[in-house]
Write a structure and sequence with these properties.
There is one protein chain. By secondary structure, this protein is an alpha/beta fold. It folds into 3 domains: about 5-80, Arc Repressor Mutant, subunit A (Orthogonal Bundle); about 95-165 and about 270-300 and about 310-320, D-Maltodextrin-Binding Protein, domain 2; about 170-265, D-Maltodextrin-Binding Protein, domain 2, CATH 3.40.190.10. Helices cover about 35% and strands about 20% of the residues. The chain has 9 helices and 14 strands. The chain has helices spanning about 5-15, 20-25, 30-45, 60-90, 105-120, 205-210, 230-235, 250, 280-295; strands at about 50-55, 55-60, 95-100, 125-130, 145-150, 160-165, 170-175, 185, 195, 220-225, 240-245, 255-265, 270-275, 320. Helix 1 (about 5-15) crosses helix 2 (about 20-25) and helix 1 packs across helix 3 (about 30-45).
Length: about 325
């Protein structure tokens, strides 16, 4: 009997939560859809997996037996997928490098050029990830290494070398009352609506909302997006403001948007990250060495207000992993 791994993932979520509503929220599916998937799995197996009651979902004996085995089954399948994709990449002599937004800023081109000199028979495939995937493919095994903004969910399970540190600024509409300020204390932004990353990004989203630096002040969400273009559009339209790295004013300059320094928030870091399994991969380690050898120097030379200049393009081919639109939270 063949069972879709997606059904097993849904089952594992319900088993862990003991509640359909919470499991559905965590999976970002509707409760009726999740209920249908659980019933489909029970039908395929020919057993009842849960006893349903007002108190929640309780595993039956058969359900408990499956729950005990499911994590290992899913972990094994995920590992098999990672190894398969990695093997195909090695055979093609392609190093898959994920990145978020502007990667390692101006140092990115130098890193790629250094790797090309070190491994002339290899090609770097730069894969741009949406903000809904802060690991840029590392967690799923779709990339071998990544240039990421720190912190990101799951980073304790990865190897990381910090490449640069830069202040966090604020991006806001040029017509905003605070746009004329040379510098803005963060507490003056607490009551502003913010453009946020998707909720599933967890504390990566919280970091860019600076939830830990608000002294308990609640966050107002004006819009949700996972791509730079829609992020810029939301800000320009006045849906909200957003914290951003200082370099965003260079890489994401757009008429109608102003960037200003912010006091009272910690700086942002960029690092090269890779899974522990690639500690012994000589190609990945060569890429890490190129990153460390080409650490960027201080690049704090940003104009405060965007001009008509366009976002600089990397001299390498990039492909977006996914694209989504702006979502406005319910009133």
């Amino acid at each position: 009997m063949d069972v879709d791994t997606r059904l097993l993932r849904y089952f594992a979520a319900v088993a862990a939560e003991g509640n359909l509503t919470r499991a559905a929220d965590g999976l970002f599916v509707s409760q009726p859809a999740l209920t249908k998937q659980i019933k489909q799995l029970e039908s395929q197996l020919g057993v009842r997996l849960f006893t349903r009651s007002r108190a929640g979902m309780t595993l039956t004996a058969a359900g408990q037996a499956l729950a005990d085995r499911t994590p290992a089954v899913l972990a094994g399948w995920d590992q098999a997928l990672r190894e398969t994709k990695a093997a195909a990449s090695r055979a093609a002599r392609v190093l898959r490098v994920g990145f978020i937004s502007s990667a390692a800023n101006e140092a990115t081109q130098q890193i790629i050029a250094a790797f090309a000199r070190r491994r002339p028979d290899w090609r770097v495939d730069m894969q741009q990830a949406a903000w809904s995937d802060p690991t840029a493919g590392l967690a799923s095994g779709d990339t071998d290494a990544a240039l990421l903004r720190l912190p990101f969910p799951g980073q304790d399970d990865m190897r990381i070398e910090v490449l640069l540190t830069e202040p966090r600024w604020v991006a806001l509409p040029a017509t905003h009352p605070l746009a004329a300020r040379d510098q803005i204390p963060f507490h003056q932004l607490w009551d502003e609506p913010f453009v946020a990353a998707p909720a599933e990004t967890g504390w990566w989203r919280d970091y860019w909302l600076a939830t830990g630096e608000r002294q308990g002040h609640p966050v107002r969400i004006g819009a949700v997006t996972d791509q730079p273009d829609t992020w810029l559009t939301a800000i320009a339209n006045g849906d909200g403001i957003a914290l951003a790295p200082e370099s965003a004013a260079r890489y994401y300059a757009r008429p109608g948007i102003t960037y200003r320094p912010v006091t009272g928030v910690s700086p942002s870091q960029v690092g090269v990250a890779w899974p522990p399994a690639n500690d012994t991969n000589p190609v990945v380690q060569d890429f890490v060495r190129c990153c460390l050898d080409n650490k960027p120097h201080n690049t704090s030379r940003t104009n405060l207000t965007s001009s008509n200049s366009q976002t600089p393009a990397l001299p390498i081919t990039t492909r977006s992993l996914e694209r989504h639109s702006i979502r406005h939270p319910p009133e």
